[in-house]
Amino acid sequence: MLVEFSVSNFRSISKKITFSAVASSGAVKSSRLTVDTGNSLAPSLLTSAVTFGPNASGKSSFIRSVKFFKNLVKHSAQDRTHGDKINYSRNKLAKGFVKKPSEFEIIFIHKNELFQYGLKINNDKILEEWLFARHSKHLSRTRNVFYRKFVSKKEGYFWDVNDSQLPGEKETWKKATRDNALFLSTAVQLNSKYLQKPFEWICDYLEIIGANERVAHNFTAKLLFEKEDKGQILDLMEALDLHITGFRVESHKMKLPQSAKDMFSEKLLEKFSREAKDQRDYRVFMEHKNQSGEVIELSLNEESDGTQVLFGLAGAIFDVLENGYTLFIDELSNSLHPLALKGLVSIFHNEKLNKRGAQLFFTSHETSIISKNFMHKDQIWFIDRLDGVSTQLRPMSDYSVREISAFQRSYLGGKYGALPNIRELDNVGS
Fold it and tell me: pTM for the full model?
């Protein structure tokens, strides 16, 4: 479960911004909005949160920073060789930041242990990297697991590795860690059992879907086709209020159309055949009842854009709920009716459907999701670039808000910033 994520000097972000999923005592009173962790440092965490902001405010930069961080952890030890650049963009508009390093830090709880993992980088190397941990057991203390810092070209790195906390071939792992690779990733690749735990959460339990990415329909269709108990997925679709009574899924071998075959060489066609050997194409038909009560089938392509988006998301959401993942989605409200959006978020508030403490954090323009007794102010964040240069992220709890039901009026009135600067167009062309 995510506790906190911080980033500085990444794309439109210059100074450090921090998103926190820690629930206040007010949010904890509504048990459906939070999950108990058993860890004294973060006893209760939110199951969902939304960030509002105009276009070009930095919403996507923040989501991309989470994705970049995950990919760096996952691939730094494998996909780079000595001297390769770490490709990412620092803030080029804020004065002095183009030459400053970037920093990322994440705090999360996994398998009864809280981890605080961070790194400082530039395009050439890892400048600093650290990991702290704390068991959820009563009276446990926070321990330093490892710390590394680049000192100079001559001296290389300063290391502080806790021998009692990190068993294994530490000297081998240190020597194998390149300047442009992470110690966490390298040590796991070389069979560090203890570091496998934080590495696993970042790589497998942290999921990110960008604004221009949507989960392929095949993922949900495959789940429906292969899963013996389809009831849970159908319950999920019903919770999204799609008015669908059932599904029928056909599975076919992946084939190239004849028109495409005529365009490719035999060698390319053979390669496609090998790669597509075990791949399947799924055709989905949704069951509806007409006015006479008869069951009518519609292919997925005949459904509305919103239904197609929800169907694509349904498999991913089911996977997240079943495994207790943390999911970030940029612009979740795209192509969704406000009620469908609300229904999707409510799934994470449903203790029967969300049994493993899954979390949903998303960005949106759709303020109608905020209504009395549905979300707490801890779950609402604002992002903007007031100076047009640097992204700022602030929680609603920073403001004195008495009634959340008055949020929409106040937000659209500009009380919290995070609104597009739309000029009057009345006199244009006159």
Answer: 0.86
